[in-house]
TrEMBL record:
Residues 1-63, 178-224 form the PAS domain. It holds the Pfam family PAS_3. The gene is PARPA_08321.1 scaffold 32756. It comes from the Eukaryota. It comes from Parasitella parasitica. This is PAS domain-containing protein.
Length: 262
């Protein structure tokens, strides 16, 4: 599997690191604790920051469930590493998986960008190439990206956000054990985030949907796809079913799962 790591950024204009998985050391040379609290732009190439700010603004304004942006991250020793960054907008955070790109002709790179809703590649001249928006033309996307930024003077998001929650799932077990959950899961599906940790995702998937969810998880794990899945979540507190739409992406450190009401 490609070398990759997970990062969680806050929803401010600075996109500060809230969490970084240990595999960041394999790609960028940093220990996770060296990055926590720093703005995410600190690792980007200075000449690419204007383009990345435009993509960042668009992700926040549109609350994109899955987007890929290909750009350079600076290694601790000073050189730059090209990464495909899979970005999931999740209510008050951005959850990202960073994949080191060894070649633009890499099969896994091509598979990954074909499965995202939007793909932006920062070109050598620092312009943005739209590489994969299924329903949006380059012209309309350029206009959308040019709109005003979504933060106020205090760098906080202005507009009301759609409730979403995220899970990290152990990719090395067929039980899909939950190892991390964000707090919005209690609001949407009635489960405290701490209560979910250690549980199997399938304990909450309606039995009629388990087979399809399992197949999509295995596909994400084996093919590095970003998969979209719709299923009914069975609440533990009252037994009611909640229709969810979620996206799945796979990293060395686990599966990233981001869900909203369907």
């Amino acid at each position: 599997m490609e070398i990759n790591f997970i990062a969680i950024y806050d929803n401010t204009a600075e996109a500060k690191f809230l969490f970084v998985s240990e595999s960041v050391t394999d790609i960028l040379g940093y220990l996770p604790e060296e990055l926590i609290g720093k703005g995410g732009y600190c690792l980007t190439h200075p000449e690419e920051r204007q383009a990345l700010t435009i993509v960042h603004q668009g992700n926040v304004k549109d609350e994109r469930m899955s987007c890929i942006c290909t750009y350079q991250n600076q290694h601790k020793d000073g050189h730059y590493v090209v990464c495909d960054v899979v970005i999931h907008y999740c209510y008050d955070v951005l959850i990202c998986a960073h994949f080191a790109v060894t070649s633009s002709d890499c099969v896994k790179h091509k598979i990954r960008i074909s499965s995202a809703d939007h793909v932006f590649i920062v070109q050598p001249d620092k312009s943005i190439q739209l590489a994969g928006a299924w329903h949006t033309s380059q012209e309309s996307m350029t206009k959308l990206l040019a709109e005003t930024n979504p933060w106020d003077a205090n760098k906080a998001v202005i507009a009301k956000r759609e409730p979403r929650f995220s899970l990290f799932i152990n990719r090395y077990t067929n039980l899909s054990i939950i190892v991390f959950a964000t707090q919005m899961c209690e609001y949407l599906v009635g489960s405290n985030q701490m209560d979910l940790i250690g549980e199997s995702l399938f304990d909450y998937v309606d039995r009629r949907d388990r087979s399809s969810v399992q197949k999509l998880i295995e596909s994400a794990k084996s093919n590095n796809l970003i998969n979209r899945v719709r299923f009914n979540w069975k609440r533990r507190d009252n037994g009611q079913l909640v229709a969810l739409e979620a996206v799945l992406s796979c990293t060395f450190d686990g599966l990233v799962f981001v869900a909203r009401l369907n």
